[in-house]
Every structure is written in structure tokens, then in C-alpha cells.
Amino acid sequence: MNEGLQKKKGKKGKSFGQSLVEFTVLLPILIMMLSGLIEFGFLLNYYLDLVDAAREAARFAADDDPLIRGGPFDGETDDTFYQLAQDMTLDSINIGSGGQISLDTINNDDIVISTFSVMNGFVDRRFPDGAPMGLSYAGNQQSKFTDAMINSMLNPAAPNAGIVLIEIYFEYHMVLGLPWIQMFVPDPVMLHAYSIMPNSAVEPTPTPP
Q1: How far apart are CA 18 and CA 127, in angstroms?
Q2: For labelling alongside 38, which of 45, 81, 89, 203 has CA 20 to 30 A away?
Q3: C-alpha–C-alpha distance, residues 88 and 49, integer Å
Q4: What is the pLDDT of residues 164-206, one digit of tens each?
Q5: pTM of whole model > 0.90?
Q6: In angstroms, rounded to a whole number, what is the distance separating the alpha carbons of residues 144 and 166?
């Protein structure tokens, strides 16, 4: 009977030791997976804040007229549609992120704003004049949307329209910055958030007969 108890205890101890070895082997993998989920959770949170900021700024810009005041290319640099839209974007980023996001315009972060006049389902004109790929806030980036890309999103049967496009570029520097994540994902990661809204002020007017 004692021999039977000793055998059972031996088997139990062996099973526990095997489980401990397996857990020790898997623990680094589990830590790597968990830290990756945390890091990408931070990244997703930043990206969603940028998307919300772009949407808020585009809503603001949708109610203003980019053609009344002119733009930075005709001498005005303060009270212009594009300057106001850029300021609104910065405010939306700061408020929406609770201050955790601050654009580093010295390096690669940027805000790019474009307005389009759409006629017969195609881009007829892009504003402001002199900025064929959008007006850059810091001069670091240009719009990712060519006129052809905008055309591909339009319905040719739709009536003439005007649209405004707000784009935000932000370099996300990893919070954890762990080497096993940086082996597979570049650090920093360039985030690109954008929003498109209608703007009747740049809608093309019909040519009088």
C-alpha cells in the first residue's frame, strides 16, 4: 500500500514538474504577445483620436467658404479658410486626445487641407491654387489623394458638388518600445487619418449661356 502511495506521489510530482517546465518555456511567448497587444492598443487609441479630430475639423471647414478670403498664396496668412481649418484641426487633436497627442511639425507630422470643385462626377478644380497636392501646414507631407483617387470615389451621376479634405499625419512613437515588437514593426509608425465632407462654397457654378 505504501508503495502505491509513493508511486502516485511520484507521478503527481512528475506531472507538476512537467507543467512548470512547459509554463517556463511558454512564458516569454505569452509576455511578447501581451506586450504587443498593449502596444497596438495604444496605437489604435491614438489613431482613433486623430480620426475624430479630422472629422471635427472637416465639419468646421464644411461650413466655411475657402474662396471669400483667398489664401496664403495671395498674401493673406492669418484670417484665411485654410489657416482657420488648420487651427481647428490642432485644437481638435489637443482636446480630443486629452493633450496626449502633440504634432511634431519640426519632423514629419503635418496637416494637409484640400478643397475640390466637382463637376459631372469628376474633379474640375483643386484648391488652393498653387498647391496641387493640398496645402501643407508644416511642409512635411502632401496629400495622399490624387485627383484620380478622388474621381474613383465619386458617382458620375451625382450632381455637381464641392468637397473639403482634411488629412493628419502623425508619427506614433511606441510607448513600450520593446525590441521584439520593433523587430516586426517600424518605430515610429506614421499614422494617416483623414475626413471628407461636402462644402457647397466650392461647388462649380454653371456657365451662363
Answers
A1: 69
A2: 89
A3: 14
A4: 999 999 999 999 988 989 988 899 999 999 999 999 988 887 6
A5: no
A6: 11
